[in-house]
């Protein structure tokens, strides 16, 4: 009876504070209390090992792509990265997620960012600035997982690919906004592959991961191209890179043999000038787009800031304040665990509302920046789609190219360099390619897509 | 830009590309340097603050692992060693015996052994504990509060965003340095510090 009333009282009052209700025992026998086991997490040294492996993998990837030009070596390095960064390190911390930690650290001075996270953010970007997206080809475990399942990749039109390319921009913007405001790390939350790496995830995540991998059999590297937020930054770094892989080790003779060699559609065909519109039309289009730029930027920024209520609600403090408001206003009868815990914590509702208001203000500013960012990138993408570059020969789209090396062996000059064909055979292949007998050809060395 | 003849040496596109390259490099390096100066230089891991935890039972279900990395731990220095343990036995049970139906623990992980009259020792079998916190709630409500939940670092993967932390209604989850990965109660806290200073690894 007494116990029942105590239980009722405790439930009504909230949670009991711990107190020493019963005195410490006075043992007469020689009983000794057992020790509490406190297993430690993995030793600090492994953090440095991770950074060292990352540097080594990036150096090797760039070396294999640029100096050795070997698809086979890149492939095996990719397998190693899948095993080490994916299954052994279980996909965390990764370069893609590190963007969020950096955003969080820049806007919250209380967060002490670990060294390995800084390294995983800085190193892939810096290596890409020097050598192109060799990180994507051979070091990123998420890319490796998708690369491994490519079966029959379809070609997407440049407009489709360009527009789908806005998705990662939006994802990056939202991820940085949510990370900087301390709301959460959405890239980690919706990472499709981490469930496989750590052999544990909720059902929805397993389903999502399986769907992405299934899609990856026909659309090569779908996450890399149309979702990866780090890919946006790597795209830009790669466009600016000091060195980028070329399809041919020598010159390009427009033999067309590499045309169909890229599963990611990252090869630009040459432009015969007869097909392109005249300079006047192009300049007019550019002028229209440049005039539209501030309009779209401010319009999108304004729209982003208007979204601050639903965006801010994702933050736990704001969500809690909304629940407290509902309860205080009599609109909800039953307390939730969160509101009950809050009321027992001793913090006043006014303090909570003030904090929530401050967070909402951050989202208002953040919304402007998010919208403006998406707007600018959108207009520049349109400019890129509508303004034609004069291309005399087959060129790599430096932004989209992962430097995977698949196209190398399609080029007859590469085959000549490797000694698999003679000079006469090269000239014969060039002649056949230009005549269009079989667009592209098959690389004589490769038997499967990956090898 | 399009259609202009190429000059020997650097052209406009090349110059633009080169300077943007350098600027980007400086920006990234600058961010890296700034964060390095603020860095903890240590890995950070997740831990529950037992003083804030409200025993809502979400720890058992929200871990990404099939068996949650959160387990109940026992501060033997705080325990009263009671016969009628409110963390072990359900209040209002039909009979006062140690039948499974009278125990709070749904998996039978809390073991009771006789020490001497009238004291009983309560230990947790971590292989069975699911981290639900039912025993913690009972102990906090009617006992000394010697049972509490902690993240076990031989199991925890140290996810960048902890799914349990995200679902915690009282915001009891904190990031702590990896060399002080537990927030302990009672004398165990001081003895843990001593062991760390001696260089023991758990």
Strand order of the largest sheet of chain A: 1-2
Globular, elongated, flat, extended or rod-shaped: what is the shape of chain A?
globular
Q: Largest chain-chain contact?
A: A-B, 83 and 81 residues
Total number of beta strands of chain A: 2
Specify the overall morphology of chain B.
elongated
- The end-to-end span of chain A amounts to 75 Å
State the major sheet of chain B: 2 strands, antiparallel
Lateral arrangement of strands in the main beta sheet of chain B: 1-6
What is the count of helical runs of chain B?
5
Rg of chain B is 27 Å
Q: Helices and strands of chain A, in N-to-C order?
A: HHHHHHHHHHHHHHEHHHHHEHH
Could you estimate the helical fraction of the residues of chain A in percent? 55-70%
Largest sheet of chain A: 2 strands, antiparallel
pLDDT < 50 runs, ≥5 residues of chain A:
8-16, 438-451
Give the helix proportion of chain B (percent range): 25-40%
- What is the overall pLDDT average of chain B? 89
How would you summarize this macromolecular structure in one to three sentences?
The complex is a heterodimer of chains A (451) and B (202). Chain A contains 21 helices and 2 strands.
Description of the structure:
The complex is a heterodimer of chains A (451) and B (202). A two-stranded antiparallel sheet of chain A has the order 1-2. Chain A has 3 domains: 45-244, no CATH class; 248-272 and 404-451, no CATH class; 279-386, no CATH class. Chain A is globular, with a radius of gyration of 28 Å. Chain A has helices at 2-13, 45-68, 71-88, 95-107, 115-131, 134-138, 141-147, 158-164, 166-180, 186-189, 194-197, 203-215, 222-226, 229-239, 279-306, 308-312, 316-328, 337-345, 349-386, 412-418, 423-434; strands at 267-268, 395-396. With 451 residues, chain A is an all-alpha fold. In chain A, helix 9 (166-180) packs across helix 14. In chain A, 40% of the residues are buried. Chain A has 21 helices and 2 strands. The mean pLDDT of chain B is 89. The radius of gyration of chain B is 27 Å and the shape is elongated. Chain B has one domain. Chain B starts with 11 loop residues before the first helix and ends with a helix. In chain B, a hairpin with a 2-residue loop joins strand 3 (110-116) and strand 4 (119-124). Chain B is of the alpha+beta class and 202 residues long. Chain B has helices at residues 12-37, 58-62, 134-142, 163-167, 187-198; strands at 44-48, 70-74, 110-116, 119-124, 147-151, 173-177. The chains are: A mainly alpha (451), B alpha+beta (202).
């Amino acid at each position: 009876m007494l116990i029942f009333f105590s239980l009722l009282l405790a439930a009504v009052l909230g949670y009991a504070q711990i107190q020493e209700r019963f005195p410490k025992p006075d043992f007469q026998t020689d009983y000794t209390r057992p020790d509490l086991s406190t297993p430690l997490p993995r030793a600090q040294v492994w953090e440095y090992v991770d950074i060292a492996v990352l540097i080594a993998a990036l150096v090797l990837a760039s070396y294999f792509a640029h100096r050795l030009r070997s698809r086979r070596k890149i492939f095996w390095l990719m397998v190693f990265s899948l095993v080490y960064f994916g299954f052994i390190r279980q996909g965390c911390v990764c370069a893609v997620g590190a963007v969020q930690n950096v955003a969080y650290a820049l806007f919250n001075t209380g967060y002490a960012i670990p060294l390995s996270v800084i390294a995983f953010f800085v190193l892939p970007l810096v290596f890409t600035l020097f050598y192109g997206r060799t990180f994507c080809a051979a070091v990123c475990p998420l890319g490796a997982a998708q690369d491994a399942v490519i079966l029959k990749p379809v070609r997407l039109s440049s407009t489709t690919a360009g527009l789908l390319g806005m998705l990662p921009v939006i994802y990056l913007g939202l991820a940085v906004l949510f990370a900087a405001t301390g709301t959460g790390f959405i890239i980690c939350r919706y990472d499709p592959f981490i469930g496989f790496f750590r052999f544990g995830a909720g059902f929805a995540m397993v389903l999502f991961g399986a769907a992405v991998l299934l899609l990856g059999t026909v659309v090569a590297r779908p996450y890399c191209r149309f979702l990866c937020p780090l890919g946006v930054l790597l795209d830009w770094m790669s466009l600016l890179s000091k060195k980028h892989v070329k399809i041919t080790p020598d010159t390009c003779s427009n033999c067309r043999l590499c045309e169909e060699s890229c599963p990611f559609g990252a090869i630009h065909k040459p432009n015969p000038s007869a097909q392109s519109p005249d300079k006047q039309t192009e300049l007019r289009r550019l002028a229209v787009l440049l005039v539209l730029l501030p309009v779209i930027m401010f319009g999108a920024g304004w729209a982003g800031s208007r979204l601050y209520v639903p965006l801010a609600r994702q933050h736990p403090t704001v969500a809690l304040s909304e629940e407290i408001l509902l309860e205080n206003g009599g609109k909800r009868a039953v307390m939730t665990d969160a509101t009950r815990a809050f009321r027992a914590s001793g913090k006043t509702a006014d303090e909570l509302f003030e904090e929530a208001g401050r967070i909402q203000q951050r989202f208002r500013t953040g919304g402007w920046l998010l919208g403006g960012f998406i707007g600018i990138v959108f207009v520049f993408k349109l400019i890129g789609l509508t303004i034609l570059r004069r291309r005399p020969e087959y060129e790599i789209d430096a932004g989209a190219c992962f430097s995977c090396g698949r196209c190398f062996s399609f080029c007859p000059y590469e085959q000549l360099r490797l000694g698999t064909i003679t000079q006469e055979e090269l000239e014969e292949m060039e002649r056949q390619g230009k005549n269009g007998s079989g667009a592209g050809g098959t690389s004589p060395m490769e038997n499967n897509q990956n090898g | 830009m399009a259609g202009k003849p190429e000059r020997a040496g650097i052209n406009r596109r090349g110059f633009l590309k080169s300077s943007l390259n350098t600027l980007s490099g400086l920006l990234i390096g600058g961010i890296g340097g700034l964060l390095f100066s603020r860095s903890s230089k240590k890995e950070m891991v997740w831990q529950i603050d037992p003083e804030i935890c409200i025993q809502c039972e979400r720890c058992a279900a929200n871990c990404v692992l099939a068996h949650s990395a959160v387990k109940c731990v026992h501060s033997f220095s705080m325990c009263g060693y009671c016969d009628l343990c409110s963390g072990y036995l359900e209040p209002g049970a039909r009979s006062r015996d140690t039948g499974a139906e009278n125990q709070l623990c749904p998996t039978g992980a809390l073991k009771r052994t006789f020490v001497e009259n009238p004291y009983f020792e309560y230990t947790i079998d971590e292989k069975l504990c699911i981290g639900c916190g039912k025993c913690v709630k009972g102990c906090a409500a009617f006992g000394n509060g010697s049972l509490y939940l902690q993240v076990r670092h031989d199991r925890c993967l140290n996810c960048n965003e902890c799914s349990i932390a995200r679902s915690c209604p009282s915001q009891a989850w904190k990031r702590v340095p990896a060399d002080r990965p537990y927030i302990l109660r009672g004398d165990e806290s001081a003895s843990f510090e001593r062991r760390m200073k001696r260089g023991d690894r758990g």
